[in-house]
Amino acid sequence: MSSRDPTKLAPSTPYKPSSTSHRTSLTANPSTPQSRFSTSAFSSPGGGIGGASSLHQVDEPLIFEIGTRFFRAGFSNESAPRCKIGITPELYGRVGLKGRGGTHANRRTGEPAGPRIRNTGSEEWELWMNDLRLKDLGVVEDLMERVLREAYNKHLLIESKSKRLIIIIPPVFPLAIQTTLSQLLFLHFQPPTITYLSSPVLSCLAAGLRSALIVDIGWQETTITPVYELRPLPAYIKFSSRGSKSLVEVFGQLLWNTIKPAGDDESWWRIFSWGEVEDLQSRYGWCKSSAEAREAARQRARKAFGLPVDKEADEEFNEDGERIRKTSADIRAQRRREAIESTEVEMVFKTPLLNERTTNMALPFEAMSVAAEYAFFLPSWTNVENFTKEDGYIPTPNVDELMEGCQGRVEYEDESDYTLPYLVFLALLHCPVDVRAVCIPRIVITGGAANMPGLKARILGDLKELVEERGGWNIVKKRNAKGDERRRELVEKKPKKVEVEMLQSEKDDLRIKYAKIGGVAPGTIRGVETMGAWVGGSILSGARIKGAVEIERERFLSTHRM
């Protein structure tokens, strides 16, 4: 019989039968087992309840991230959350009901208008709001309890009493919501401790940095937070009301202006569903580059003054009349523009309040970038047009506005309505010099709307142009830069040629040094990718560092204070 008879081989599993395991352990020589059971946290979770619980130790915490629209939950030392639960109108009512039901009738069909109509129709798609005057804390507590029970019972599959909690919250979080959440967790789920961490710090940590400028484009607002040595600087945080919600609102308004009858003043959110509009915007929306947006603004300015619109010539000539040869980058950019202009998007959507009527539309692909222009880059007083406007998707400005200058008009606007690049510039400008020097080459753009194609590059490109236009980071803006420079030349002593050459050689040596080590020269505006705040919390919890502020269950239930 062959020595490799399969009947004589050892079993493939690392565990031997119970009848022979004790006897073989006494007689056989000690040897290394063929395989071992891995308890690594990065292993794929096993099926069933035992698979999820056996992979994690008792002292490893759970990571929760609470946002306005989504709730994420998962285990420590993992690269992604186990679940992402969205807030929908179905969570507000009983099982099987859509929303809380409506009492208002639509004036077109006479049917119920779906969820209860309030300010903008988005309240039943949000877990909480910054303005708590329009939100019932009891309803918020019930929603949180339903979301937490779904996360524990369907996704985490683990006992809630044995795990510490790390909860990631925005830098400015309503204290009433935080107290309600703590009371809910300690009473119904009974974790031993809860640690609250700020999302900008964890986003910075997930990017592999200790200091950065975190631009978080959230649902309700955009928050710009400087982080220095893993410490947020609350005194220099900037806020903007332009967020993902503004983007969805503009997209829905553009869509409704395209199909509505003439003279109809109905609001778009009474006709469309927020979920439908958000899905269309996430699938079709994109953002123009800085050069394309600058050229479009120049053409609108020419049209405002009654000048003919420039058409790009096939051949360009220099001052001597010689033909300028286009580079490969120019050819690729021209082909890209031609492809964008000739491409159409087939859009299919339903209008729930118009007898579920299905509408098919073929819109230009270029029009899908207009929503980002209105939401993030155009002044707040710009009127929203539609997707099929013949003269352009963005209205032509008045001559008076152009003569005043956009920058002068913006400075009189409320800070929450500033465009995103200008607000990022102000955040860096108001920071101390040492913090600004560290944050300029480390700008992290995160959030839900940050995944839109072209948005990150557009913000950084407009920021570079704004810095070059203002001539640096001086807080006092010069009105006559050329005249000041001329007077300085007359007063100051002109340096010698040798000194100028020495300074230039030192700058060249510095550039060569940074090029060799692969670093970025100081003052270079650069964006850095991040894996998200939840991953940062997972990394921090894996380091087993005790939080500076931990809320214990017994102490909170006795004092009811944070």
From TrEMBL:
UniProt cross-references to InterPro entries, sorted A to Z: Actin, ATPase_NBD
Gene3D superfamilies for this protein: 3.30.420.40
UniProt-recorded name of the protein: Actin-like ATPase domain-containing protein
Biased composition (Polar residues): 15-39
Domain of life according to the entry: Eukaryota
Gene source species: Orbilia ellipsospora
Family: Belongs to the actin family.
Region spans: Disordered: 1-48, 98-118
Coiled-coil ranges from the UniProt annotation: none
